[in-house]
Amino acid sequence: MTSAPSAPDPGPLATWPPRWSPRAVVFDCDGLLVDTESEWLATQARYLAGHGARIDEETRRSLTGRSIETVVRTLSAETGQDPYAAADELMALHREALTDAVGVLPGAVETVRAVAARVPVAIASNSPRDLLDDALEGLGIGDVVLTSVSVDDVAEGKPAPDIYVEAARRLGADVADTLAFEDSETGATAARAAGLPLIAVPSIPGQQPVADRTLASLEDTDLHAWIRTWERAR
Hints:
By secondary structure, the protein is an alpha/beta fold. It is built from nine helices and six strands, in the order E-H-H-H-H-H-E-H-E-H-E-H-E-E-H. It comes from Brachybacterium kimchii. Pfam families: Hydrolase (PF00702). This is HAD family phosphatase.
């Protein structure tokens, strides 16, 4: 007799709050901890408008969370501008916008600090190193973040798994024991491809990242109650 196929593993986040505890945690940055993702989308729109070009909503959605290189390649194809010139123009617009205070998203700092009090924490971002360092300085969490991985530190950025694999490696944890937090479809694809259990906290309208659990905010009370149950790393 042929046995019935076994049910798929529901994963460690199937119940909420979970009974599982991670050994390490990796947070995305833009759109999860700081409100730079919406500004970056606005910068792209300003750049396109300045060249009399536009992209459809599906393309805009697919670019959310992607590396600057990918965004530049896509937008310069629409404007006909040389990619290097497009990159310079886009980054000049972006850096100009970032001279204003970047908004910290609700619950971001409190959640990172609560997690870091229990297990090692890394930040994994598709931003270049200088922009990631600026964001972390603005957040004021450098004292509790063990390491950060930028798109400059790996062969391929998100949605490839490289950034999350490298972050877990630096934390000395197996990917299956490392919890990821993401906001975008691109980032969620990367974390899942790397094999990390994933909590999504979308901040950009239209983004529907596939995750093991989706929360409306990092201020979620059940999330913080669960974090307090984690065994402290030694």
